[in-house]
Every structure is written in C-alpha cells, then in structure tokens.
C-alpha cells in the first residue's frame, strides 16, 4: 500500500511563506502526476497546483506567481512553496498523487490526510 503524508503547515502572517511537503511511502514503482488541493469548511475542495512526471506544472489563477510546486523523485516527495501568503489562502491543503505500485498494473490516485495552513495577523 501507499501512504501520503503532508507536513509543513502552520500559522503565518500575511506576506509570509511556508513550504508544504507531501512524502509518499510504500511499495512505490512510479509517482506520476501530483496535485495539491485545498479546502475550507463548508466549501468544495479546490485545485491549487499540478506537476506532471516530466516536471510540467500548472497553477490555479489566484496562486500563480506566489506558489511553486516541485518534486524530488529520489525522495518520493512533492513540495509546495507558498510565498506572499494571504488570509484567503487559509485552508487545509491536501496532496493527491497517481502512483504505480511495484508488481501491479495501473496508477490509482491516493490522497494524504491534509495539513492546516492559517494566514492571519
């Protein structure tokens, strides 16, 4: 099986920075596309950023120029660098990854448990 564990969340002042990590563990063969989502209470989970296996990236409009998604395949870890944070970035952040397991066909999507980011003065 696979586990995705997010970390790096916390309380930060507006204009500050945080770096989230999403560490994958288990019988992993390949990690393909990875996405970050966020969710606030009472609202649907929304897309934040995506990185393909070849390193191509894309972002939700409100985070473009402020957030950077990256990956370290040697460590099976995906990062979300968040700069110039705003109060409206406050949410629980989740990673979602398409992962192929050793000896199995396909690459189902897995979710982490989320990490809270709070931007407040």
Keywords, please?
mainly beta, 0% helix
Task: Walk me through the structure.
The chain is 0% helix and 58% strand. The termini are far apart. It has 121 residues and is mainly beta.
Strand and helix layout:
Elements: E1 2-7, E2 10-12, E3 18-26, E4 28-39, E5 46-51, E6 57-59, E7 67-72, E8 77-82, E9 91-101, E10 109-111, E11 115-119
Parallel strand pairs: 2-11
Antiparallel strand pairs: 1-3, 3-8, 4-5, 4-9, 5-6, 7-8, 9-10, 9-11
Number of helices: 0
First-to-last CA distance: 40 Å
Mean pLDDT: 97
User: What spatial form do the alpha-carbon principal axes imply?
Assistant: elongated
Radius of gyration (CA) equals 14 Å
Largest sheet: 7 strands, mixed
Number of strands: 11
Low-pLDDT residue spans: none
In short:
The protein has 121 residues and is mainly β. It is built from no helices and 11 strands.
């Amino acid at each position: 099986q696979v586990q995705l564990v997010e970390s790096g969340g916390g309380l930060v002042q507006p204009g500050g920075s945080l770096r989230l990590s999403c560490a994958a563990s288990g019988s992993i063969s390949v990690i393909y596309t990875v996405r970050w989502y966020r969710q606030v209470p009472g609202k649907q989970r929304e897309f934040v950023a995506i990185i393909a296996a070849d390193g191509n990236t894309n972002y939700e409009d409100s985070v473009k120029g402020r957030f950077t998604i990256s990956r370290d395949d040697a460590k099976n870890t995906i990062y979300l660098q968040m700069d110039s944070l705003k109060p409206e970035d406050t949410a629980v952040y989740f990673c979602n990854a398409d992962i192929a397991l050793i000896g199995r066909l396909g690459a189902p999507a897995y979710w982490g448990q989320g990490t809270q980011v709070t931007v407040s003065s």
